[in-house]
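Hi R.,

Here's the chain you asked about this morning:
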Amino acid sequence: MKTPYDAALRVQQREIDEMSAAISTHSGVLSEVERARDRVSMSMTREADLAAGDLAVCSHAYLQRMRGERRQLATRQRVLKARLDELRDMAVDAYGTFRAIETAASGYRQDAERVIANAEQAGIDDFAAMSFIKARRAVRREDS
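And the predicted structure, written out as tokens:
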């Protein structure tokens, strides 16, 4: 049964789907940033170990550059985590709104079904009353 809430439900469902896709995308990007940060840390460790074994190798500039890259990745990671948390909060709110609209639509359907059932019952009652009245009239005619 259609309700006045159906359009709002579709809009809200689309919003939830879009947020779900955005959360998935941000999660993927965040995972990639975390992996890149791990790769930088491993590279720095490996380079520091190599430089420690050979005093002729100067790795100071390389390590400085990698520390800067690691800082940038850490900053990007914090920004992505904050945005992901924000998207999740928005998704929770959107889902709550969706459930509220869904509950209202369900209430509307139940009310409409109740009205229909009451109308059917009233029709049955009217038919029964008419049958009773006709039967009484028939009995009265026979008695007269």
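Residues 60-143 form the longest helix (84 residues).

Let me know if you need anything else.
M.
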